[in-house]
Amino acid sequence: MRGRVLPPTDQRVIEERHPFELQRTKRRALLRVAFPVLGVALVLASLLGIAVYSDQANRAGALSLSDDLIAALEKRIAIEVSAYLDPAAQALELARDLAGAAAAADRRTVAESFAIDALRRVPQLANVNIADGDGDFMLVRRGQAASGNEGGTDTKLIRNLPLPRVVIWTHRDASRHEIAREFDPADPYDPRTRPWYIGALTTEQIFWTGIYVFFSDRAPGITAALRAEASDGKQVVVGVDIKLDALSQFLAGLKIGRTGRAMIIDAQGELIAYPDATRMLRQQGDDLVSVHVDELDDPALRAAWDRYRVEGPGRRTLEVNGSRIVTAVVPLPMSGQGWLIMMTVPEDDFIGFVSGNSRTALAMSLTVVAMCALLAALLVRQGLRADRAARALLDRSLAITRQSNAFARLATEAGLFDRSGDAPPPALCEILAEVTSASRASIWRVMAGDGALRCEDSFEPETGGHVAGLELALAEAPQFLAALLHGEEIDVADAAVDRRTATLHELLMNKIGSTALLMVPVRCDDRVAGAIWLEDCEPGDGARNFARAVANMVAVRMAEAPPAALVRTGALAGAGAAEPQEVRSFDAGLALRGLDHPDLAAEVFPDVAVLVLRFADPAVLARRPPGGGPSLADRIICVVQEIGTEHALPYLKLAGDELVAAAGFGTADPTAAIRIADAALSIRDRCLAMLEEAELPSSFSIGLDIGVAIGSPLGQQPRVFNLWGDVVRSSHAMAASAAPATIQVTEAAYRLLRQHFLFRPRGSFYIPRIGAARIFLLAGRP
Q: Is residue 182 part of a domain?
């Protein structure tokens, strides 16, 4: 892409101002934007600060309240457990007193009567047990619904002495009347081996067993036992079995946040009570055993238990799997049990509403920010519009000044209205480009005959050079030339998408990267004699009006009859005048490289004619015809081979999307250049026909040059003959820069072929080690 030498209007206007004015303009624009933006930023920062402070304060308050809530729940659980177990302990102490005071003969009757009353009044009791050192045992339990004794009681009596051992089950109804009795001699139960009996003998206080599963109810529970000394001197142990399912039901009913849980565990981590009673037991062989807290597969519970084992009881906040969990593991105030209350609650259950409220408040605050931003944007917009209006007024004034100065300079050009000159003065295009900030300014004349255009002068500020002599035929850009000849004024921002200028953009504008085009026709009486082109000029009426004024000036020069478009033999524009000679010295080129003929391991051919056929869209070559058959590339190569054989072209090579043909390797081959030119015309016509038949665009071009080349066989057998040198490179360059479906030749080729073919001048082209040279389009045979 190019970089302009002349700055655009805004930059030029700034440069024409005083430096202090430039600084004031920048400072004013900065302040107009900075102050409103700073105000909005301060409002936003204030609201964010308030939101952050409120969120943190609310979180701290909510967490403080949650700590109080957890403490209250701990007390409530302790009270509930105490209320649940204390009646059982009191009943146990009464049973001990009765068993110790009763005579041996009445002990069983008194104990059974008390046990029945205790079971009715204390629902958490499952069984009442009495045993002595002889192994005598009595168990009283509620009647089983399965046996049809619901509401009654079942008494199991084991008497070891006097022998034989007797096990009797006595069933009584709700009125205590005996309804059935049965013997169970196979029962091996011995109370003296049970943990509750053994433990009670070791202490004067109530002994509490660990949790275990009752055999009859298949439910978890514990046993409280107390030792007593009977009146006959025997050691009697009284025990009560307490079911824990009611504690689990109580814990399940506790509301701790949304998803919090509380449980009771012993010092070893075994579950005593859990909100989900179905998870308290697990199968181990044929038995049910209590579950350990680690076996619940709950990361929060495991983390709380591990922290308790390391740091002891307390309330903590733990990070578990990216979530903050509030935990509490504290002792349960009961005598001698070592039970613990464990609670886990996600922190969001306590402060989730705080986050929600904070987000809502922040969203409502953002409404205020949006309103402030809108007001600030309106303020900035109004200020910038005022600055732009002032700059536009100043720009307009400066533009008028520049145009006045330009007209004054044009008035000093003596040759501007001189019809005898070959071309308009160079200053005209330079002034056009300077005033309009165009990337290229050019003046074109309509040719006679087929209505072609010829460039009289073209100036590019980027390079500072002038180009003239380029021709544009009607066949190359028919829609553009038709619009021009009808007197249309064309002003398009993107010439590549406008149907009138799309081909023109591809042919000329795309080479320097220009996009926009302003074309003003030059009118002479009732006809269009030429045009003024401005590429990528500044938008607005200023450039258009100045181009119109220059077009009226140029019309005076173009009032005479235009020259012919097509030339043959020596009838080129300017024929009769001495033509610049293009000098190519192969020996001089070798000398510059420090070489000579004996130093070359290749043969030098002084007059080789080289043709390059290039396809702009290689994908076209892979197309197959609708009816099937070989690809387009295959058909084109076959045609080129036929043409090469027909015109005796000894060198033919395909490389990618380019095909190279050459002739003139012999010492005396005067027809080589003519054969190459005839082959180029045949290839052009045949390719056009095949592409038209396939309904494809004419995306090929041909380049031709004649000069010195180097050739040599290369590689292993069979060796490949390769041709290279400046003539090959220039032929490639001609093909690459040619318009679609045209044959572009160098001035050297033109000089050898002009007596036999028709040519159209194309303009100038730079050839390495030769310099600028004219290029031509090969039109055909005369």
A: no
